[in-house]
Amino acid sequence: MYVGRFIIVGPETGAYRVSSRSFPNRKAVAREDTVTVGPTEDAPETDNPYISYNCARVVGDTAVIGNGSQVDPIAEKIELGYPARDALVECLLSLDYEKDDYDTPRIAGTIGEESYIGIVRRNALLVREVTEPTLVATYEKDAPESFDFEADDAESAASTAYDLDFEHPVCAVAVTRNGGNDGFDLAVENGN
Questions:
Q1: Cα(171)–Cα(162) distance, rounded to whole angstroms?
Q2: Which of 43, 129, 122 lies closest to 88, judged by CA?
Q3: How confident is the model at residue 179 (pLDDT cuts 50, 70, 90)?
Q4: Above 60 in pLDDT, residue 180?
Q5: In this predicted model, what pLDDT tens digit does every residue of 71-109 receive, in sequence order?
Q6: CB 70 within 8 A of CB 94
Q7: With 70 as the cut, is the pLDDT of residue 190 above it?
Q8: Which of 20, 64, 102, 159 is deepest in the core (most CB within 10 A)?
């Protein structure tokens, strides 16, 4: 089944996977408290604004993951003191779904004291508090649903997300809280 890009948010772990039929030549690159998705060196040139973006950011005691440019304003609002839920709702609502040929939904989640998952699609804005692993995807699974996802650390979470039985994996990213304290670990899986 092709579900497109998806996120899984659990109370202590978040994972994001790029799945793509149109732009498979991408990779995730981690640096300090941010992970960026962008084209590989051999990717064809494109002016598509939805190919490169920060997909994970850690700000204080909260991590943000998502499938596009909404990650940065969500993180910035959290840095300004907004509650995670409010930052998620406000940014998803204001940016709306992607204005591409598919009206691709924007998905995002937060991992912290309270964890949330959300999606804005052409016909809905849904944000849910997370108490167990929950998945939402851009296609087919476009409403938050419980999902069986177990990982002991960021590396295994990224690998597990990459290996899930959904079509066209490109790369995966994960963030986990360090033993429940305010620190986070980030990991990427580029399928190499």
A1: 6
A2: 129
A3: low
A4: no
A5: 999 999 999 999 999 999 999 999 999 999 999 999 999
A6: no
A7: yes
A8: 64
Pairing status of strand 34-39 against strand 26-31: antiparallel
User: b or e along 132-150 (b: 16 or more beta carbons within 10 Å of the residue's beta carbon)?
Assistant: ebbbbbbbebbebeebebe
**The predicted structure's pLDDT at residue 47:** 86
DSSP-derived secondary structure letter, 153: S
Contacts of 183 (CB under 8 A, 6+ apart): 177
Return the SS3 of 28.
Answer: strand
3-state secondary structure string across 46-115: CCCCCCCEEEEEEECCEEEEECCCCHHHHHHHHHCCCCHHHHHHHHHHHHCCCCCCCCCCEEEEEECCCE
Q: CA 98, CA 120: separation in Å to the nearest integer?
A: 9
Q: Which amino acid is at 115?
A: S
Closest residue by Cα to residue 185 from 13, 65, 55, 36: 13
Domains of the chain and any CATH numbers: 6-43+50-189 (3.60.20.20)
For the record, the structure tokens of 139 come out as 């296609």
* pLDDT attached to residue 26: 95
Report CA-CA distances (Å) from 68 to 50, 177, 180, 181: 7, 22, 27, 27
